[in-house]
# Entry
Amino acid sequence: MGKQSELLFEKARRYIPGGVNSPVRAGKSVGMAPPFIAGATGALIRDVDGNEYIDLVGSWGPMILGHAHPEVVAAIEKKVGEGTSYGAPTELEVIMADTIVQMVPSVEMVRMVNSGTEATMSAIRLARGYTERKKIVKFDGCYHGHADSLLVSAGSGVATLGIPGSPGVPDDLARHTISIPFNSTEALHEAFDRYGPEIAALIVEPVPGNMGVVIPDKAFLKGLREITGEHGSLLIFDEVITGFRVAPGGAQELYGILPDLTCLGKIIGGGLPVGAYGGRKEIMLNMAPEGDIYQAGTLSGNPLAMAAGIATLKILKQEDPYQELERKGELLFSGLEDAAQDAGIRAVTNRVGSMGTLFFSEKPVTDFAAAMESDQGLFRSYYRSMLEQGIYLAPSPFEAGFLSIAHTDEMIERVVNSASRAFRTLEK
Ligand code: HOZ
# Structure
């Protein structure tokens, strides 16, 4: 970490709460100022002090092709000279919607928005309007953005900063959200036995990435589909992270489960701000102007975001890099686990494809409670050592690490060797 970043952080804190525009990146839980970024190419990211790091954050998921992929850059450059926003329909939006419908198994119709938060918030409104019910079921440690109904027992920054429930969310609203442990079929049945006829929707990250990566039990995921169907509640998959990440059609393709609604973001914007929600036509047609459920946005379907997203999805379709990403994921995370074992550090890794997390824990991490029991002090020392060695990780034990097609085997080896050195310096 360098002087320039420290000075910028100091200045930023004068004008921006906490010096950042999204809490986790402030690095509060690792006790240090964040590196301020000057640029990034491929799998490498550079800070304003001239340090270069192997990037395992990938902007928290979107950069599956690596940074500044030439075809994505060309698509943006081609479009930018024609204007950056019209607030009117464009052909690019139709191409994007068509591509999403082709690639994501359950989606028949889709609406573009500007962030993952907007996508989940809108999907919840649609579910409530469609079912004429109020209650939402979610899982402890799953994070679906910062909309009022979804901040209850949330992961990501809420977990990282230890915020129990955000002030500003009215109790009257929060009481309609039921949060239960992930991977617990028992808790699921209890919730539906008790509140079934009142439940509008169950929302889930099919592979949670915001309490660190947690692997879903397949029978549990299947149970979500069955129980929501039995009670007339909608099943919403929040695939903002997993969409186009764990398979071309997301977790729903990987596990063969079709939700009623799907929320997307990150990869579909190729690194520009974007979100989307979609699903069965019969449900989606309830949105205004076809139906009465309202949601809107001046920048929705923004031409630059559409151009970057379409270019990204086109490459993913053509190159189908998923097997290769799986191989790289295995190389990285099994390497980390072996290195921890060799150093006598108790650690476990959870991984699906190219997303994964190393937890400093002696037992398997299958839910939020287990993730929270992992050793946060060890993570803090590990994070700092890795950064010093040129490896850029998310500054929180409750986030996912992401690989891209630009990460080479050599880079992965460097990450594992750096981790090995870091583990040897940690106090057991
Ligand atoms: N909430 C995201 C992580 N799961 C974004 C964090 C950030 O950009 O600071």
User: Anything to note?
Assistant: DSSP finds 15 helices and 14 strands in the chain.
